[in-house]
């Protein structure tokens, strides 16, 4: 036995005793991220949502930083789905730049949901429990939103008891949309505004107002640029765990999520009220119910389950549950829990803002880390699936060797086909777990 092999054997024996090695830092990512990165690498739109809690919601957090890395590499396909709630984003200079929010100018008769905690009935029709409502209050209820993009998609809810709304773009009446239903369960409504503005940095003012004495429910704006690139949908809600998100398992929500054309969805939820903070089995069962519903409703969307950073020790048992659920279903897994020893280490490094949340530096660190993990797996996956059929198997090797023999297998994209391409392909194929 040589020295390296000896050290490896010792490491394998010692690892469990040191509390390391039980959970991988990542697992099963390649199959899940392949579709997203194929779209992005080939110059089309790649769409990703994050289901999370306040860690995936607040202005200085990792999610906006993660989005910014995608934008820097692949360009922006628009600002995506953003719920109209108390917090519509306010990045300013403390967060991911000026582009993570809607400016909401509230008129009379305008209400928004909370952005944290248990769902209320109107929120059951939306992915994040967030909603806005306009009611007639002596004058038509109204608000104005400033949004970016060539297309601004209005996500509203059609339901019994709701009425028509007027939509004005830059002051001009565009349409009157009926949001009422005669009977039945609430349904997802979607209205596409073509702003005619191709410059992704130009704001369009969209004013909504009640067009009768009946209320209207408008939940979110989705912003799409006319450019290819990355589009991020914020689907997070503060203080919410898997049990709370189950309140969104409705037909209306499924239709909203399907309309977002997500190639990938990250789910980063820890135990909150209803999950039994110290009951990993209950937490796991609730997460399974939610994840299985996403899988059933979104057959085209791939899933990566993500643990929280280790701000409290209870996360550890949940990280095991998340790994079990990912393995049983062949989903991706990102383990942030084992990156640091705990809150004190993260706080000493300046990554924390309080007990739970990330500082701006923490948001930058975790955003960059998650981007690197996804990006590396994505590039390897695109390379390993040489015959482009979505799976990694021996036929990819055959297809690569065939192209290699013909001198057209430039796997490392340096303009020529040589031995380094063979190495690059095999390395990617191995990493993809084929
Ligand atoms: Ca293949
Ligand atoms: Ca090459």
Q: How is this structure best summarized?
A:
By secondary structure, the chain is an alpha+beta fold. The protein has eleven helices and 20 strands.
Features:
Rossmann fold; seven-stranded mixed beta sheet; disordered N terminus; alpha+beta; Jelly Rolls; 434 residues; binds calcium ion; single chain
Largest sheet: 7 strands, mixed
**Beta strand count:** 20
Q: How many domain regions?
A: 3
CATH fold descriptor of the largest domain? Rossmann fold
Write up this protein:
The protein is an alpha+beta fold and 434 residues long. The chain is built from 11 helices and 20 strands. It has 3 domains: 22-77 and 228-384, SGNH hydrolase (Rossmann fold); 78-226, Galactose-binding domain-like (Jelly Rolls), CATH 2.60.120; 394-431, no CATH class. 33% of the residues lie in helices and 24% in strands. Strand 19 and strand 20 (357-358) form a beta hairpin. Helix 2 (29-41) packs across helix 9, helix 6 (280-297) packs parallel to helix 7 and helix 10 runs antiparallel to helix 11. The longest helix is centred in the C-terminal third of the chain and has 25 residues, at 360-384. The chain is globular. The structure holds calcium ion (2 copies). One calcium ion (CA) is lined by residues 410, 412, 414, 416-418, 420-421.
């Amino acid at each position: 036995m040589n020295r390296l092999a000896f050290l490896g054997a010792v490491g394998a024996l010692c690892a469990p005793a040191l509390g390391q090695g039980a959970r991988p830092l990542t697992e099963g990512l390649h199959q899940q991220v392949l579709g997203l990165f194929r779209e992005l690498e080939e110059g089309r739109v790649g769409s990703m949502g994050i289901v999370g809690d306040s860690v995936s919601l607040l202005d200085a957090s990792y999610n906006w930083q993660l989005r910014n890395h995608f934008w820097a590499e692949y360009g922006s396909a628009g600002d995506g789905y953003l719920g109209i709630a108390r917090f519509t984003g306010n990045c300013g200079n403390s967060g991911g730049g000026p582009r993570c929010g809607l400016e909401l100018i509230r008129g009379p008769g305008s209400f928004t949901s909370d952005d944290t905690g248990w769902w209320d009935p109107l929120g059951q029709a939306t992915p994040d429990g967030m909603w806005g409502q306009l009611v007639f209050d002596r004058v038509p209820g109204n608000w104005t939103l400033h949004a970016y993009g060539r297309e601004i998609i209005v996500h509203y809810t059609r339901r019994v008891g709701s009425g028509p709304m007027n939509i004005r773009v830059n002051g001009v009446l565009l349409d009157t949309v009926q949001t009422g239903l005669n009977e039945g369960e609430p349904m997802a409504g979607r209205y596409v505004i073509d702003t005619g503005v191709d410059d992704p940095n130009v704001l369009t003012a969209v004013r909504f107002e009640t067009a009768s004495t009946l209320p209207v429910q408008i939940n979110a704006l989705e912003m799409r640029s006319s450019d290819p690139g990355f589009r991020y949908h914020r689907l997070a809600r503060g203080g919410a765990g898997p049990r709370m998100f189950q309140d969104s398992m409705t037909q209306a929500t499924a239709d909203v999520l399907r309309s977002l054309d997500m190639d990938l969805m990250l789910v980063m939820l820890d135990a909150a009220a209803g999950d039994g903070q110290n009951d990993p089995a209950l937490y796991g069962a609730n997460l399974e119910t939610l994840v299985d519903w996403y899988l059933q409703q979104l057959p085209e969307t791939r899933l990566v389950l993500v643990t929280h950073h280790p701000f409290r020790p209870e996360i550890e048992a949940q990280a095991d549950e998340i790994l079990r659920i990912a393995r049983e279903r062949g989903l991706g897994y990102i383990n942030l829990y084992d990156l640091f020893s705990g809150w004190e280490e993260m706080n000493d490094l300046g990554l924390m803002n309080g007990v739970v949340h990330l500082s701006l530096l923490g948001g930058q660190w975790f955003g960059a880390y998650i981007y690197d993990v996804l990006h590396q797996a994505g590039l390897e996956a695109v390379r390993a699936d040489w015959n482009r059929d979505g799976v990694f198997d021996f036929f990819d090797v055959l297809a690569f060797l065939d192209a290699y023999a013909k001198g057209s297998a430039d796997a490392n994209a340096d303009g020529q086909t040589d031995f380094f391409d063979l190495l690059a392909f095999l390395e990617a194929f191995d990493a993809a777990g084929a």
